[in-house]
Design a protein that fits this description.
The protein is of the alpha/beta class. It has 3 domains: 85 residues, SRP54, nucleotide-binding domain (Four Helix Bundle (Hemerythrin (Met), subunit A), Up-down Bundle), CATH 1.20.120.140; 186 residues, Rossmann fold; 146 residues, 434 Repressor (Amino-terminal Domain) (Orthogonal Bundle), CATH 1.10.260. The protein is 57% helix and 9% strand. It has an 8-stranded mixed β-sheet with strand order 3-2-4-1-5-6-7-8, with helices on both faces. Helix 3 runs antiparallel to helix 4, helix 4 packs across helix 11 and helix 21 packs across helix 22. It starts with a helix and ends with a helix. The chain binds guanosine-5'-diphosphate (GDP). The site of guanosine-5'-diphosphate has 18 residues, from helix 5.
Amino acid sequence: MVLQDLGRRINAAVNDLTRSATLDEKAFDGMVKEICNALVEADVNVKLVMNLRTSIKRAVNFKELAPGVNKKRIIQKAVFDHLVSLVNPHNSPYTPKKNKANTIMFVGLQGSGKTTTCTKLARYYQARGFKSCLVCADTFRAGAFDQLKQNATKAKIPYYGSLTQTDPVVVAREGVEKFRKERFEIIIVDTSGRHQQEESLFAEMVEIQQAVKPDQTIMVLDASIGQAAEAQSLAFKSTAAFGAIVITKTDGAAAGGGAISAVAATKTPIVFIGTGEHLLDLERFQPESFVSKLLGMGDMQGLVEHVQSLKLDQKDTMKHISEGVFTVRDLRDQLSNIMKMGPLSKMAGMIPGLSGMMGNMDDEDGAMKLKRMMYICDSMTVKELDSDGKMFVEQPTRMTRIARGSGTSVREVEELLAQQRMMAGMAKKMKGGMANMQKAQNAM
Ligand code: GDP
């Protein structure tokens, strides 16, 4: 089951229950059962699912709920919290530091997405102001260096490799030494994979590790292996100590939920997840953000962090949010930033409500939709853009004028204003700091 489908199914189960007229224990049990079935179908380990079931039931103890309490909120919060703990490794990964040669070594089986992820990660840090580079120590697979070269060139990342040297340890050592001398801050070493775990692969891994002394070793795992991720990561771990995991191909029809929860259960930090073949399809993994997005609740915190890290101009919106305000212009600025930031379907998932609005659109349709929203904003007067949106309710003819001016429909204008209202509501709740941000989201 694709992760998005899993999220939709869990969400539907919670919404059906909280909307139903009789919110009793029987209906609640039905919801928990549906969530558990969805998780098992996404290849999450049955034992983990059973634990989740028990904990949700314990957290929402129907018999002891005082009359008048907001059952809907309690149920939503319990489901959210327990899904977070299901995917939470409870262990922090290494954080690269500026003005230091942070060496990151990649290990994993062939085809897991190692080479692709190395380039994605180098680009990720490069966009965040780190001087990044790549070393290809995969001398086992013919064409590995060519592939890395192509990826690196596309991403404009300096690289090192050899077409003649057959000893991966020598290539790794030489490459890392050269880049350390040149004061690179992120040095990523791609090592070779094998079709399966073999003695020779493990021996090579250990040798390269000793030669380059990485600050972090990351293992790459393909999400489609589902629950088997646990056994694979343990097998690697018992040979070469590694610090963190990247799970790739979580966009596929694979059992991504199974892989993520299985790894989390081993308490190995998951640093990133791969969400597609494109260079930008790499997301930092944070349990709360991941579950928020899974459930279509958006990920305001992730969005703000992402935008900040990309050094886009955000000053006004950040100031507004800290004051509890979110104007139509803020929404316009966010939309325009989103269009600069990469695959739309992924970015839209971070804005509460927007992914729902975009439904099952592909990136092209999504881009069109966002463009139309921008046209709407661009047809507004300065006063309207800087307003809190109330003037449209007081004078609905403004919407007709804007729809005509932007070549869109009144309905689309209404939709945009509803989106802004929702974000303004969140900004209001978040006033007083980012710490309240997640609370505001959880309460939605
Ligand atoms: P390696 O043998 O481990 O170095 O694997 P590659 O980096 O060559 O990747 C194998 C295939 O997986 C390539 O076709 C990649 O484009 C693809 N791939 C890697 N990461 C992802 C991902 O997150 N999503 C999808 N859909 N494909 C990916």
